[in-house]
Amino acid sequence: SMIRNDVEYIYMSHGIGSVNLMLRKHALDYFDTVFATNPIAYAEIRKQEEVYGLKGKTVLKYGFSLIDNMIKNYQDNLSLNDGNTTILIAPSWQEDNILDLCIDEILQALLGHGYQIILRPHPQYVRHFEEKLKALEEKYCINDDFTLQTDFSSNETVFNADILMTDWSGIAYEYSFTTLKPSLFINTPMKVMNPDYKEIDIVPFDIEIREQIGISVELEELGKLPEMVKKLLSESNYSKERLKEMREKYLYNVTHSAEVGANYIINRLIEMSMS
Prior knowledge:
Blueprint: E1 10-12, E2 33-36, H1 39-52, E3 58-61, H2 65-76, E4 86-89, H3 98-101, H4 103-110, E5 116-119, H5 123-128, H6 130-140, E6 146-148, H7 156-160, E7 163-166, H8 171-179, E8 183-186, H9 205-208, E9 214-217, H10 225-234, H11 240-250, H12 257-274
Helix pairs in contact: 2-8
């Protein structure tokens, strides 16, 4: 602290993406402690200290309580599948997202194959581009297998979907690590908050995870989406057992991260009060 030397600043991520790619360069330099969500984030922080000559931080192997809460909510509210394959399209609202680049091509590739398609835009996209969404709904409302959802009061559609499709939104990690069902990624231009992220020689979580919990598809290959959907639903590499392994590998302290974080804070308060 610039004012007091008995303050410990703790950073807690609002997502489980890369702290090197998805935060501005040097964003974490002056935090005393970082609650790391996953092993890649842990490695990125240590590598930043090495490359930029920073003072060593306390890096707690913490996890992500939002996903822990979603897992509990999902397990408490399991519903029976009605037999129809449901694909939930949940884009980000960054520049060049699915809705701005390729939503027509996606819907034209998927509609008519017996899938229920639910489009769930980011709340900020609904806020800023309401007219675009109205036009899209009018264009595709003739299809009984298409729904535009702008009510975000429930995670029911997220929980019940068989596959989630997105671009670079963190909802994919939340979905796949909660439901143990696969994600389908569209390779729109990547969101980059730190243009110098390659100075740290570690593959960011957001890039590595795409082929671990699902499949990524190039913009030029959207016509192959029905084939990719069948692959995700049928191959053992995308089974619940496999995705559970990926969850344990890529996320610290699944279902009890809050306890780990709280214990650290309580213990530090006791230590500081006795010093």
